[in-house]
Amino acid sequence: MNDVIRQLYERKSVRAYEDRPIDEAIVGEILTAAAMAPTAGNQQLYTILRVTDGDLLKALADSCDHQPFIAEAKLALVFLADCLKWNDAFRYANAEPRRPGAGDLMLAVNDALIAAQNAVVAAESYGIGSCYIGDIMENIESLRELLGLPDYVFPAAFVVFGYPTEQQKTRKKPARIDMDYLVQENRYHRYGETELRDLFRGKPLDGDYDRWMKAFCERKHNSAFARELNRTVAEYLKQYEPFNKQTERDD
Question: The CATH number of the domain where 20 resides is what?
Fold first, then answer.
């Protein structure tokens, strides 16, 4: 196993950091690694916001489900799926771009997430921990104000970085799903009840599968976070005109 593979295997979310800064030269390498990520048509359909304002970072920590460790991060990056800058560039060149659609957004989200993961891998190579903050997609009204987000700019990922404390280094990484269930071949297979019980058999520590699954459903799928996330994303999607309406207008 080479060093890159080993680091991918060992990497886990880090939510407590040593009180020491990340050298700016290393920050530069992390950002450049993000920019070197695969991208659709070499368009780099994303913008990276580096959050350096302490008050803004605290506000984001509060907005993102009140997680104080976010404000302690030594590097904080928001990866924005940016469908605006190309459309603006087209208009300034007297082209006639259509309004961005859902497909454009998905491409931009893909670009942003791939770049974010490159940054995470680069940081890991220097012993710098990281944590993705999914809550960045919540609370559209406050987030737009905090980050100055116009239409067609979507916060796809928020990653915070720092050198992990000793406790974080030694904390056991959660087990992943068995590869026999994770990887399928050629055509999608929908798992039945028996297969799903076997797939998740290692999750409940006390062996009570039904109780664990019901509790997990309430804590994650039915949670206030999940409901707000869906509300916010639905609001963002309203910006992206359905393709059939665009076609009718263009004709």
Answer: 3.40.109.10
pTM: 0.93
* Residue-by-residue pLDDT tens, the chain, 251 positions: 999 999 999 999 999 999 999 999 999 999 999 999 999 999 999 999 999 999 999 999 999 999 999 999 999 999 999 999 999 999 999 999 999 999 999 999 999 999 999 999 999 999 999 999 999 999 999 999 999 999 999 999 999 999 999 999 999 999 899 999 999 999 999 999 999 999 998 888 788 999 999 999 999 999 999 999 999 999 999 988 665 555 544 44
For the chain, the domain total comes to 1
Does any domain span residue 167?
yes
CB-CB contact of 77 with 49 (8 Å): yes
Q: What is the signed CA dihedral for 156, 25, 60, 102, rounded to 10 degrees?
A: -10
Q: Identify the burial level of 58 via C-beta atoms within 10 angstroms of its C-beta, where 0-12 means exposed, 13-18 middle and 19 or more buried.
A: middle
> Is 128 buried (19+), middle (13-18) or exposed (0-12) by CB count in 10 A?
buried
Q: Residue 134, Cβ neighbours under 10 Å: how many?
A: 14
Give the residue numbers spanning the domain of 23: 3-173
Rounded to 10°, the helix 102-125/3-10 angle is 110
